[in-house]
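Journal club side-thread
Mid-discussion, someone asked how the predicted structure for our own chain would compare to the paper's figures. Pasting it here so we can look after the session.
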Amino acid sequence: MSALLRYFQTALTVFAFFLLGSRLQAQKVEPALDLGSGTQASNRAAVSPTRLGERLTIPPARQLEAADQVEKAQVQSIRDWNQSGKVPWRSGFVRLLHDPLRVSLPAIRPQQQLYSGGALGDSSPGQLAWAASFKVDRARALRIHLTDITVPPGTVFWVYADGRPTSYPFGLDSMDPQTRSLWSPTVEGDTVWLEVQLPAAAAAGSASFSVSEILETITLPEQTLNLGSLPLADWCLITGACIGTDTQPLIADYRKAVSRLTFVQGAHSYLCSGTLLNDQDPSGFVPYLLTANHCFSDQASASSLEAYWDYTATSCNGTIPSLYSVPRTIGSTLLATSASSDFTFVRLAQAPPAPRVYMGWDASSNAAPAGTPLDRVSHPSGYQQHFTRSAVDPSTAFSCLDLPRPNFLYSAVSVGSSQGGSSGSAAIKAGGYVVGQLFGVCGSNIEDNCDIANNRLVDGAFSATYPYLSGWLDAGTTPQPCSPGPTTLCLNGSRFKVEAQWRTPDGSTGAAQAAQQTSDTGSFWFFSSSNLELFVKVLDGRGANGHFWFFWGALTDVEYRITVTDSVTGAVRLYQGVQHVQSSGNDVTAF
């Protein structure tokens, strides 16, 4: 295979069979600026951490030795992975605690005391707080994984570095609904404090969780590039802060739409880039984000998503902010993904802070004819924002296997370049319209990112991606009411439409058949009406935490995906069961 691929692995799961009913309506949507009105800002910052563990100067609940002493093979494997051009770009690895920490918090409100390796006390009248620290010798940055979570709605989690004033809140809106696990924000340094604040109404025995692993971010010796001071003609990677409006009139908008993505998949963390997309609903901004399927394609990784915003120098050759000082959002819901045009589409668990730009898009089949200039802002190797310009090349001289036109766009680079970490970044044509997202590089010399003569950039074409996304991007101001049918349940006063699809190991697929049980509860069967496979329920929990709650239970190990639509707001949630695993769950912040 002469045309090697740097940024992609072909062994990917395709979820095309889960495609929702596509409505090929709008072909083009304008970019939009969000100044803060209508965004779904989190209210978690309304409280502050007590830092009671620091005040008591208690030792770490768990401590691990330095990675370069006991995990040399893991560190070397990350280096080998990145140097060989595999993707996504690896940034760290999961370290198992030799003695997992299980925490069960009591309902009583004791005086400040030591408890479960940490400190227990009141955060405010009637509210309980617990805090403990975890240390990994000589670590650059750490991220805690909480599992087996059972806490009341309204619980707030915090992480912060030892002795540093900045703290990072996170909550159940970022939790993986299937596994009831939660990744914290990343904290710089070798010690991370975890604090849990329970609401006053917490019931006895209802607050518990485990910590059995910590993600350690690795800095390799070769990751020391500083390209901010290099003239444009001297290097193929161009910092975005050095691009002015004379080169790209909308460069400031691009910077406000692009994020640096990190996520966990298996035993490692990875880096990619993503872009906010605008939709047709004028009532507010929904934080839809587009990236690549080869970055991630499952809900577990989507739940672990950490999106960094505004990671760019203050000016050309100016100061680059600390990565851990820029705004972040944690978690997302996987909405659609497919290898057919290499895309993944998610809804972020929180809206990124304004001002923010949601890029426009053009889904027409002739959106990017030959010669069309394409610009992109991305985070190569996880560095600050960089800029690339290319032009659509129709020549078949550069064609990679399994990347057929028109599902993929090929373009020749004229300014800048890209590398691992740029995957998923949007290809944007004049006017701020997304026409694709980065797959990688195709050519005869992909080992040299700067060889623009023998390589071409390859993007999944948005025109091929759009049919999968139209159900969200075409959302109107008046959502359709739920109408019960053979494959549709209408629950909780008929406000919520619930549908399901199944797939067997041999690839056979179908729509699950619906059976209403009560006004709030229903079931689905796959192969026979006498053999019920799924049960679902929607409850109005707004009196407890301001949300509707969704529960589901599977009596099958056949792969399935449940789609729940709020007919009042148009919001959509997806819940998936994997093949050969009997799974159930609940989402108490669903709507």
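Post-session note: The domain at 1-30+227-466 is CATH 2.40.10.120 (Thrombin, subunit H).
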